[in-house]
Structures are given as structure tokens and as C-alpha cells.
Amino acid sequence: MRLSRMTLDRLPETVKKPGYDPANISVGIVHLGIGAFHRAHQAAFTDAIMAEDPSWGISGVSLRSPDTRDALEPQDGLYTLRIQDGEGERLQVVGSVVELLCAPEDPEAVLRRMAGPDTRIVSLTITEKGYCHNPATGTLDEAHPDVVHDLANSQRPRSAIGFIVEALARREAAGIAPFTLLCCDNLPSNGHVLKRVVTRFAELRDPVLAALARRLSCPSTMVDRIVPATTDSDREAIATALGLEDAWPIMTEPFQQWVIEDDFPLGRPAWEKAGAVFVDDVAVFEMMKLRLLNGSHSTLAYLGYLAGAETVAEAMALPGMEVLIEGLMREEATPTLPPLPGFDLSAYRADLLRRFRNPRLRHRTWQIAMDGSQKLPQRLLGTIRDRLQAGAGYERLALGVAAWMRYARGLDEHGREIDVRDPHAARIAALVRDIVEPEQIVDAYLTMRDVFDADLAGSVPFRLALVKALTRLFVEGSAATLRAHA
């Protein structure tokens, strides 16, 4: 039998069930990008406060594929969280997602829900590439195919930005106040970036809409929880534990963190009761997470994949990897962070290393390696820029960038094809696939101005550091390069 509202009473006593009736929940949030991270993070926070205020149910929107809708709709939106670490696991059924929509199949249904008066928050986890922006500058990519399409087809948008602006236009016409836009993706100043691209898109559509967009509330956030992709073996294990089939359970860790700027004109859930922290300025927390966790994660993923490690835990076990990552965080990234009064950065770094070592989370290096052209500016290049300006070293950071260059070229250390998932994969292949000299490969990558801005691309020390690191990866290989740090 399938997990659903009708079968909740069949669950074992050891499985935590919703402390409310999911059938009595109403929609207050539309979430664009109803993927695994949202269901492990924001939906779980919302689930924790739902018994107190059932008006904050989530309408989850898939912007590309119907897979999530097809998996969860027969389950009434219910799914299992498997929370695990080295000490064991616990299972929890989440019921905060009460509606599932597929935008390509029925964009009008999505727009109606977003434009309706009950929707007070529109949140997003669409990954960095979903913002149709230039990652190096944070501005709208006006030549992006989805942007061009949505400007010409406002009633049938493809992008999150197109849906947001059309829904705002409909709310304005109906005399309904704008919703709050809540970005939950790993972008520096993510609320500001979202507001910038939405405002520019609105300007291209209509000056009246642009004025409306400028008044939008777009609080920035910092989100953190490790969420590996679900495998068939995960589904089998969950089915055995539940005695019910769950088509799309979510694997995650006990740790969760959410720091949010408190700016919600139409109200918000009491997420602080579930552990969220509301602050006046999230930027310093955001930078800390991007540079320490995400920068380390990307470096670890590229070097680990090239050395043959399938998961993060396996990569951390490679001789030299933990020493490299600890040094990157402590010596190169931490000095670039602004003061964090009362926050123990040493303990935070130790927590990260422990989380990376978690043997129960099979977080694939290949999964983390996706979309590197969109992630590097925030995760590594900003830190390198600050180190350059300070006249300080960045050897480990440069090695992380060089490992991405080696990986994104599409051939591993044995000449085998790598399935590179990146919006610029074809462009990168055309640039560097047939080049074998590390110096020429670096020069080709540095022409990508949407990844490397003019200052970095024109920096002779930065170029030389990349050439040195990439040459070492080609000559010695990733595993030997790591062993030198042991």
C-alpha cells in the first residue's frame, strides 16, 4: 500500500507523524522548485508549526518536470524524512505540502494560485541557474532564452522570474497586496539578487510593474542542510521500515539551519519555534556558509570525484583531503569573513568536518559537482578576490577552481567521459575539450566573463596559481595531489 492520509494510522509507532490533520491545511505559501532540499528544509520547518497555524500549507510547483508531482500527488503530498548520522536514524512523515502543480503542463493554475489572496509568501529553491542571471554580476541575463520567451509570452511563462512578475501584475489589477518573495538558494545577498532580477524583468515589461517590483519585500536568507539524492535502495529501505510504499522519501542529516531577515508585510509562519533565527541582516551568516561550507563542499567534490570517490564521506577519507579542507576553511576562508560576535567559528568548522564525514549520508560528489559555472563565483572566487586584495595566499582555493576546470572539461584522469551537468557544459567542451596544455586550458576558461569577472581574469597571480594547480592535477592526479597535504 502507498503512504497517504488514509494509511497514516498504519505507520509504526517509531515513525513520527504530523501532529495535525493534513486534510485541514490551507495554502499560504507557493514554493517554486519543489525539490529534495525544500522538502528536507523549509517544508520541514513549516511542518513543525502547522498544528499551531494551519493556514501556512505549501503549494509546491515544479518548473520543469512532473516527476515530483507524479510521485507525491497519490500520497496527498506526504513523504518521509529519513534523518541519519553515525549514531542511527529516525523517520518522520511531513504533511505541510498540500498541493502539487507542474508549471509546464498548466501555467495558468500556477498563476492563479500565486495571484490569489491566500498566497502571502512565494519562496524559491530553483538553484543558482534558475534565476536567469549572470553569476559574476548578479544582474538579469536579458538574452537568456527563458527571459526572451517570457517577455513575449507573459501568460505562459517558463522561468520563475516570469511567473513572479505575471502574478504580481494580476494581484495589482485585482487590488491584492504583493506577496513576500523568499529566496532560499545559495546566492550572496540572495534576496537582493532576486529583487534585482525581478525588477529588471518588470522594467522590460512595463514601467508600472517596475515601480511595483521596487516595493517588493525580498528578505535574504541563509539555509543549510545536507540532502543527498534519493536512490532506489533508499526507497526500498523506507518501504521496509514503514510497511508502506513512499515513491519519493528524502534523506538528510540531523543538522538544519535557517537564518532569515524578518521582513514579511503579509505575515509569516512562526518558524522560530522550529529553530529558525530571525535577524536584521543575514549577509554575514550567508557569507560564512557560502565560503566555509559551500566552498569546501565544491572543492571536496571535484577533487574527490577525480580521485575516484563516489561520496563525500569517501572523499573525506582520502589521505590529505581533511587536512586540505580544514586548512582551506581556517587559513584561507575564515580571515575573509566579517566579525560574528558571539559565534564560535572554530566549533562551526569542526561541525562541518564532522558532517562531511557522516557515513550514513551517501551524498554523491557528482551531485555536488553540478552547475559549477553558476556556483564558483559565490563559493570560491569571491574568497579568492578578497585574498588577492589582502596580498594573502589562496593555494587551496585555487586548487578547488583548477579541479573544477579539470572536471568540467568532461574527461576523467583515465580519459573516460564525465557526465557534466552544467548550463554551460557544451560551451565549456567547445572551449577546452581538445586542449591538452594546462596553461592554454586556464586561458580558455578565463574568457568566460560570466564566471570570471574582468578583474580576476586579468590577474596575473591568479592565472599563475591556476596554471600551477591544474598542471599538478594533470601530472600527478588528484589523489597524489591530496596526499601531499596529508
UniProtKB/TrEMBL annotation:
Pfam families: Mannitol_dh, Mannitol_dh_C. Residues 281-463 form the Mannitol dehydrogenase C-terminal domain. Gene3D superfamilies: N-(1-d-carboxylethyl)-l-norvaline Dehydrogenase, domain 2, NAD(P)-binding Rossmann-like Domain. Residues 28-273 form the Mannitol dehydrogenase N-terminal domain. Keywords: Oxidoreductase, Plasmid. One of its GO terms (molecular function) is oxidoreductase activity, acting on the CH-OH group of donors, NAD or NADP as acceptor. The keyword Oxidoreductase applies. InterPro entries: 6-PGluconate_DH-like_C_sf (IPR008927), 6PGD_dom2 (IPR013328), Mannitol_DH (IPR000669), Mannitol_DH/Oxidoreductase (IPR050988), Mannitol_DH_C (IPR013118), Mannitol_DH_N (IPR013131), NAD(P)-bd_dom_sf (IPR036291). PANTHER family: MANNITOL DEHYDROGENASE 2-RELATED (PTHR43362:SF1), MANNITOL DEHYDROGENASE DSF1-RELATED (PTHR43362). This is Mannitol dehydrogenase protein.
